[in-house]
């Protein structure tokens, strides 16, 4: 070998080494490069062995070239090793050792959580989910639901009217009518949504809140199915040892009508501030669909029976979480939201 050949060989080896090193992504790859180039049986020591075949006058120069090569390769190798150890793969400007950006995941609003939970339970009981408009007409919100023309709920005090017969729905019950107008029985459906009432805002009432409406229509549906379904629902939501009862009540669109109470989970039924000493908490209104409602949607009340129910989601949340001022659910105060 001549000195020129050594120089040339050293040059191409250095390039090869740099290319190989640049492709290294982990310690295993680094070790391969070390074994191939600079370890005892690698190509660089092999090149040193060639020094023997170099004529004496060139030996010194060839030795200088090879020593220089070995030093540069070693320091490039060490630098790469250090970079890898520091977590910096490739010579990119991404520094994996820098602290990451903290992710601050959001929270589902407690009302959203409660809505989802109620929906989950009814879907597991075989109900489907339907939707209706928040801007309703008098016919669906009142008339088809058997509200007489002079019913006090039609009063300006309670309803936000947009025009004479157009209003913001005051409950989710009009969705029952819309579902029955467009579907034939059997029906088992829940209808969640926002409702609006023109009431003085206080800790107990707000101009906007959420309800979940329910409707089941088929041949031969009885009050027993209503009780069984709503009892199962309440126990899934509030716990298995819950007791419940149905009290006679009145709604224009159901006959008979009832309100469902659950045993107060704060005091276990002994009587406390939450249940106002009664041991019971009212959670929903329900009843058997009034024949007049079936007639309004074109169902034969002799052929079909059904039950309906409606619950206020804020009320359920108030009971479950013990946050008693309804306005807090609409303020979006992070101090509240972050607790959910
Ligand atoms: N719509 C009633 C309300 O807003 C709640 C309700 C009661 C719905 C009884 C029903 C029902 O479907 O059967 O107060």
Q: Which features would summarize this protein structure in a list?
A:
340 residues; alpha+beta; BirA Bifunctional Protein, domain 2; 2 domains; rod-shaped
The helix fraction, in percent, is 25-40%
Cα Rg: 39 Å
The gross shape turns out to be rod-shaped
CATH architecture of the largest domain: 2-Layer Sandwich
Number of helical segments?
Answer: 11
Give a list of the ligands.
3,4-dihydroxyphenylalanine
The CATH top-level class label of the largest domain: Alpha Beta
What class do helices, strands and sheet pairing give?
A: alpha+beta
How would you characterize this protein structure?
- The longest helix is centred in the N-terminal third of the chain and has 30 residues.
- The protein has 11 helices and 10 strands.
- The chain is rod-shaped and about 120 Å long.
- The model has no long low-confidence stretch (mean pLDDT 92).
- It has 2 domains: 89 residues, no CATH class; 228 residues, BirA Bifunctional Protein, domain 2, CATH 3.30.930.
- Helix 1 packs antiparallel against helix 2, helix 1 runs parallel beside helix 4 and helix 2 runs antiparallel to helix 4.
- 40% of the residues lie in helices and 20% in strands.
- The strands form 2 sheets. A 7-stranded mixed sheet has the order 1-5-6-10-9-8-7, with helices on both faces. A 3-stranded antiparallel sheet has the order 2-4-3.
- Bound molecules: 3,4-dihydroxyphenylalanine.
- 3,4-dihydroxyphenylalanine (DAH) binds next to strand 9 and strand 10.
